[in-house]
């Protein structure tokens, strides 16, 4: 996807009982999710595709801006 139009052939999907949902990030739950992440209650390792130090922030933004080319799903910045 990554900002490109996607053609969905509903005539082929309805028979397979496919459900399509969309939505935006619910920022109301972000503080709780961050607390859970820090406490080790969420395993997000399988979502992270790239890791960068804060000194590499320009490169990190470049990678995240081109997900179709870089395969970026989640980019993590660390301070250390």
UniProtKB/TrEMBL annotation:
It comes from the Bacteria. It comes from Micromonospora mirobrigensis. This is Alcohol dehydrogenase.
């Amino acid at each position: 996807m990554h900002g490109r139009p996607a053609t969905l052939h509903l005539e082929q999907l309805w028979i397979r009982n496919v459900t399509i949902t969309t939505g935006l990030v619910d920022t109301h739950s972000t503080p709780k999710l961050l607390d859970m992440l820090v406490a080790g209650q969420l395993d997000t390792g399988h979502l992270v595709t790239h890791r960068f130090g804060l000194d590499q922030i320009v490169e990190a933004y470049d990678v995240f801006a081109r997900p179709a080319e870089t395969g970026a799903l989640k980019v993590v910045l660390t301070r250390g």
